[in-house]
Amino acid sequence: MLAPSVRHLVFQRDDGEVLAFLPGQFVQVHFHYPDGTPTKRSYSIATSDGRPQDADSPVEIAVSYVTGGAATALFESLSVGDRIEASGPFGRFCLMPPDRNARYLLVATGTGVTPYRAMLPQLEALHAERGVEVVLLFGARSPQELLYGDEFIAFAESRPWFRFVPCYSREAAAPPRPDDRRGYVQDALAEFAPDAERDIAYLCGNPNMVDAAFEVLKVAGLPVPHIRREKYVSSK
Question: What residue stretches are annotated with the FAD-binding FR-type domain (predicted)?
Answer without folding.
Answer: 1-96
